[in-house]
Amino acid sequence: MTRGRFITLEGGEGAGKSTQAVRLVAALQARGLDVVRTREPGGSPGAEEIRALALNGAADRWSATTETLLMYASRSDHLERTIRPALARGAWVVCDRFADSSRAYQGAGGGAPLDFIEGLDAHVVGETQPDLTLIFDMPVEVGLERALARGGADLRFESKGLAFHQRLRDGFLAIAAAHAERCRLIDATGDADVVFDRVWRAVEPVLP
Questions:
Q1: Burial class (CB within 10 angstroms; exposed 0-12, middle 13-18, buried 19+) of 60
Q2: Taking CA atoms, which of 27, 99, 135, 174 is between 20 and 30 Å from 181?
Q3: Which domains, ranges and CATH numbers included, belong to the chain?
Q4: pLDDT 10s digits, 167-195
Q5: Whole-model pTM?
């Protein structure tokens, strides 16, 4: 059986990834594809429990190193329970955040050493790398305003301050530049329909 495709959506707070993930899944299903929509941290029962630890509490609850370990523990379970089985049966997986978020949040934003993150990635993710990564980009102030207006209980990362979020944006832009073979930078400004047009143009080349 042909392996499915793995698409990840990345970006800073308030960039609209979750909205676009729902739209993308619907569009792919309309093409007759078997599609699994999932998220990180989370995406499996064990990983969702770790999500609750990682996303709640004070901004300084965990160091960047501890956060990295939590995220990769969650990712390991997610891969074992959800992503790899779906890909093996030929389904497409659309994931709201994946390993690039660790590189940007814990690495560029938090200061965790990149070689530490990449070492974990090699062991945990291995060959299960995304086929396509969409990185949603917008000015930090705009994204944070959106995220804070949305509210919710899990606002730990939103509370880390403007400088953190600027480093985060810079980190995602650096990832997009360094991995141009799989990353597509999406202008996340504008209404949801306009942004989805940009998303679909990026996804169409990988369609069967």
A1: exposed
A2: 27
A3: 6-206 (3.40.50.300)
A4: 999 999 999 999 999 999 999 999 999 99
A5: 0.92
